[in-house]
Amino acid sequence: MIRFILSRLIQGIVVVTAVISITFLIMKAAPGGPFSKERNMPAYVQENLERIYGLDQPWYVQLGRNLKSFATLDLPVSFRLKGWTVGEIIAQGFPVSLTVGGWALLISILIGVPAGALAALRAGQFEDRATMAVATLGICIPSFVLGPLVALFFGLKLRWFNASGWYDSSDWVLPAMTLGIICSAAVARLTRSGLRETLLQDYVRTARAKGVAEKMIVMRHAFRLACMPLLNYLGPLAAGLVSGSFVTETVFQLPGLGRQFISSALHKDYTVAMGLAAFFAVLIVVFNLLVDILQAWLNPRIRLKDS
Amino acid sequence: MLGLMSWLIRILLLAAVIGGVGVFHQWRQGLPLRVTLAAEKKVLLIGNGTEIETVDPHMATGAPEHRIISALFEGLVAPATDHPDKDGPGVAMSWDTPDFITWTFHLNPKAAWSDGMPLTADDFVYAYHRMLSPELAADYSEMLHLIHNASKFSHGELGSFDEVGVEAVDPHTLKIVLEGPAPYFPSMLKHYAWFPVPKHTVEQFGTMTERDTAWARPGNLVCNGAFTLKEWRINHYLSIEANPNYWDAERVRLKEIHFFPIEDYSAEERSFLDGQLHHTETVPLEKIAYYREKRPPFFHEDPQLVTEYYMFNVTKKPFDDKRVRQALSLTIDRETLINQVLKSGSVPAKGLVPPGAGEGYEGPDVLRFDPERARQLLAEAGYPGGKGIPEVDVLTNTSPSARVVAEFFQESWRKHLGLKITIRQQEWGVYLDSRRKKTYDISRAGWVGDYPDPYTFLAIWRSFDGNNDAGWDNPQFDKLMFDSEREPDARTRMGLLRQGEELFLEEMPGIPIYWRMQSHLIRSELIGWKPSLLEHRCYKVIDLDPTRTMDMLEAKTHP
Questions:
Q1: How distant is the alpha carbon of residue B433 from its chain centre?
Q2: In angstroms, rounded to a whole number, what is the distance separating the alpha carbons of residues B217 and B231?
Q3: Is B138 an interface residue toward A (CB < 8 Å)?
């Protein structure tokens, strides 16, 4: 177990280093730089700036310097937000993304799992078809359509919540609802297929033959195994949700990490983009590890070994 | 019996849920609007577009920064209380000049920093020294180059700052000597590049020329304007509060101003409709006509000192021929574009320099829609009916209006001149890079004036100017600009600038399209707000009156 976790952590370090390097190289390769403005900068200013920030050095020197500062946790300053370090920027945005993402994850599970289970237990019947039709619709609706609709109806029309912004303690509701509803569609489909498959397995048939009550079969025996594909999906989903969604944060004006990530990439703010990409990679690694551990605990057939 | 009970329970549950929702609905609907609560507390809520990069006046570059920094800091000259575009006393109570070259500013002895330290002429010398230092690499340092020897100093050709034309004669007298006469100099001083910075705070957090220090962060920043920095949360809001040490603090009406960085136009509009903003930065293009007709009390259109234009890459065939450039300009029906297609309220350009740029300046009125003459010119240039001109590449950025304009031009040039046009939309940074590297045939561009004078629009077309992305090189034009920089007589100077604009419109390295009008949604509680060509705001006379509240959906006419 400990060896497994350690090897996963070492893999994680490799992944994060690769993510930082690739982010940097892609941004370097794209045209424009962190100081491009509509008004052209005088040549002497441009030269001085490049010298001050070491942008006149070869790319591998710049990359090495950045990797070193991330490795030593001496986080670099933003090119755009003058005087702010990458750490301060993440520290301000993450709580917001975490709140909205956490609630969205909860909503998606609370809607998706019962709906999927209902569909699996009533396979082929009206409940199944209706649930899956709604779920397909949910997968198809993008958040930039659902978000404004939710804001218009619950915000502007009914005035139940603020249509946008991050002021009141209830401001997570509409964005989390938007994200949660969209994600619950996939959760429902995965729950349905997982449970359907499990219910057809031999050990379920054995349990039925032994006369175990249907409720017990589903809740005690089938459901644990049925969760496996869902858990595999929930790991990256959770990482994605708590690190912020650009579209939802734009629609609802949330000061989260999603907006920051996109704007740093567009403004060629190398350090912030690298920092956020690394942060996102760390989250994915951590959540995947958690999922692996959880799966081993739920399914006795899986044993964690050093691969 | 059992069935009946279970149904009864279900019905009761349903009734409870419906009742609960009803109570919740009543409660939420009864809550007052944010704008109303804020107006009662004298807190102004404003949409401010893109998130700012800094509040350090020497490091800033954009319009959102301008709106915040001009509330935090004050230059020698400030927007006048009766109209923000007029020059009023700032740190300087008065100023005089015998020849528009040597300027003497008499500083207000009451002027102080927000921490109570006195503000003296030395602070301005320090600020201009910092701004011009090559080690700071300030983007806008060029704005100060009209000071004597300033350009040499920032190019590192001068050993000591003592030789630059800024001098503290005594603590309350500042003398500035320019390279040449500049009658517009006081109005230029309202730009943040000219604002003072506190030496004692800057050097508490680093050296004079160190970038990225924490001196301009909340809690550290010391400033001299009507407000001080309270809080700044990235992508969330930035709040400022009234500065008790401001020399004119008695006049300041507002207690706080909150600036919200809302980049998405529709999200900003929703915030306004939801009662979260007193003033929006803009209005979505497609909604302008609706608000103008249906909600006039809330809709405001302010002329700006901004020219939108298309420029040619004159280093490339066939655009090295001015007849081709003229022909393309003559086939643009600016009236139709603005009134029927864009519906933005902007003004069809008659020349390059927008109205209001410089007292006593009358620009030429030569831009016409004349496809007949255009075809003739194109034939004279050797391209009858557009034959011989390869596919033309039109470069624009990704804003919604940029696309609409590009498509209108594409169709106009196809219809009237037989040209084949491809539109290339590029993301902002990439688009700027393409412009700079001249990998385009025709490109969309815009220019925001820095001060009300035609020179700010014309100087960028000098052959050596860093902003001349068209590659246009005209010695006669350069000479006119050079002469205007040295002409002491205001009328003669305006004459030289007018000749420059006429030459530009004859040679047509760029096609002026429209003079921008900025739309805003403003709530009725906001009073004392005046439109300004350069978005100057005299924050100290702005006030909120909570009794003037008006229902957004019912108010269809002016009160």
A1: 21
A2: 9
A3: yes
**Cα–chain center distance at B245:** 29
Percent of chain B with pLDDT over 70: 98
Q: Phi-psi region for residue B382, left (φ > 0), alpha (ψ -120 to 50) or beta?
A: left
Tell me the pLDDT tens digit for each residue of A228-273.
889 889 988 999 899 888 889 999 999 999 999 998 988 889 999 9
What's residue B556's pLDDT?
A: 44
Rg (alpha carbons) of chain B, rounded to whole number: 27
Strand-pair category, B392-396 with B442-448: parallel
* Measured CA distances, A265 to A12, A88, B87, B360, B415 (Å): 23, 18, 40, 46, 40
Summarised one tens digit per residue, pLDDT across range B313-368 is: 999 989 999 999 999 999 999 999 998 888 888 999 999 999 988 888 988 999 99
Query: For residues A153 and A155, what is the distance between their CA atoms, to the nearest angstrom?
Result: 6
Give the chain B residue nearest A252 (alpha carbons).
B267
**A149 touching B, CB under 8 A?**
no
Element (H, E) at A289: helix A270-298
- Measured between beta carbons, the chain B residues lying within 8 angstroms of A158 are 25, 28-29
**Minimum mean pLDDT range among A33-42, A51-60, A83-92:** A33-42
pLDDT tens readout for residues A155-185: 888 889 998 889 888 999 999 999 999 999 9
CB B297 within 8 A of CB B550: yes
State the Cα–Cα distance between residues B327 and B370, nearest whole angstrom. 9
- Percent of chain B at pLDDT exceeding 90: 77
Rg over alpha carbons for chain A, rounded to the nearest Å, is 24
Where does the pLDDT of residue A51 fall: very low under 50, low under 70, confident under 90, or very high at 90 and above? confident
As a whole number of angstroms, the distance between CA B204 and CA B383 comes to 66
Q: Is B134 on the interface with A (CB under 8 A)?
A: yes
CB-based contact, B436 to chain A, within 8 Å: yes
User: The complex's ipTM?
Assistant: 0.90
C-alpha to C-alpha distance for B196 and B121, rounded to whole angstroms: 9
Buried b or exposed e, range A118-148, using 16+ CB within 10 angstroms: bbbbeeeeeebeebbeebeebeeeebeebbb
The three-state secondary structure class of B392 is: strand
Q: Is the pLDDT of residue B233 over 60?
A: yes
Partner residues linked to B257 by β-bridges: B44, B240
The three-state (H, E, C) secondary structure of B290-341, written as one string: HHHHHCCCCEEEEEEEEEEEEEECCCCCCCCCHHHHHHHHHCCCHHHHHHHH
C-alpha to C-alpha distance for B413 and B409, rounded to whole angstroms: 6
**Across chain A, how many H-helices and E-strands are there?**
13, 0
List all residues 6 or more positions away from B199 whose beta carbon is below 8 Å from its beta carbon: B122, B123, B126, B208
Query: For chain B, what is the mean pLDDT?
Result: 92
Distance from C-alpha of B391 to C-alpha of B411, rounded to nearest angstrom:
14
Which structure tokens are listed for B59?
A: 């490091």
Contact between B276 and A89 using a beta-carbon 8 Å cutoff:
no
CB atoms inside a 10 Å sphere around CB B166: 23
One-letter identity of residue B196: P
Q: Of chain A residues 196-235, which have a CB less than 8 A from chain B?
A: none
Give the one of B54, B235, B429 whose C-beta lies nearest to A259's C-beta: B235
CA A251 to the chain's CA centroid: 18
Q: Phi and psi at residue B168, in whole multiples of 5°?
A: -90, 100
DSSP string, B78-114: EE-SS-TTSEEESSEEEEE-SSSSEEEEEE-TT-B-T
pLDDT exceeds 90 at position B163? yes
Q: Output the pTM of the full model.
A: 0.92
The structure tokens listed for A108 are: 């998606």
